[in-house]
Amino acid sequence: MSExxxxxxxxxxxxxxxxxxxLEIAAKITDTDLNTIDGRVWQVSVxxxxxxxxxxxxxxxxxxxxxxLLSDLLYDxxxxxxxxxxxxxxxxxxxxxxPFGSKGWVLCGxxxxxxxxxxxxxxxxxxxxxYRVIDVSTVKQLxxxxxxxKGVPETPEDQKAHRAAIDIDRSIEELAVYRKLILRG
Length: 185
What we know:
Blueprint: E1 4-12, E2 22-31, E3 36-43, H1 58-67, H2 69-75, H3 81-93, E4 105-109, H4 112-118, H5 123-126, E5 129-135, H6 136-146, H7 164-183
Parallel strand pairs: 1-4, 4-5
Antiparallel strand pairs: 1-2, 2-3
Helix pairs in contact: 6-7
């Protein structure tokens, strides 16, 4: 059986996992060659829609307004975070998926430590995670530092869509570029 990686991206009301809310979660399972095997996206029900905008700084409010996430949260179907936790736990526990390594699911993404801290709000899923992560933003910094002559493409922060599924796809694509240019080049 092949081994798999878990890619996650979250959109939140802010930066503090103890105070802020998760608004959107995307998860993708890839094989170790970065081919997508399965993926899901959830917009998360917020505890109090009347407080939603007051939980965000002006910059975060503007970002989520531009991306369309706020509109989706207010007018589309959402799922309570506990439901997302149960659904993601079930997906990761499915017999057809085997986490890379033997110590749980390796969490992958860009600045994925941020997402990992918020995932503590999802205890069933968090319990399946390895302590190891693959952070694409770290790889980017190493490539820029150690092999600047390889012509690694710039990926400025403002290119982020701030929609979880799009940002995961971009992270996977970015790691594939580094893998091709640097690790196998």
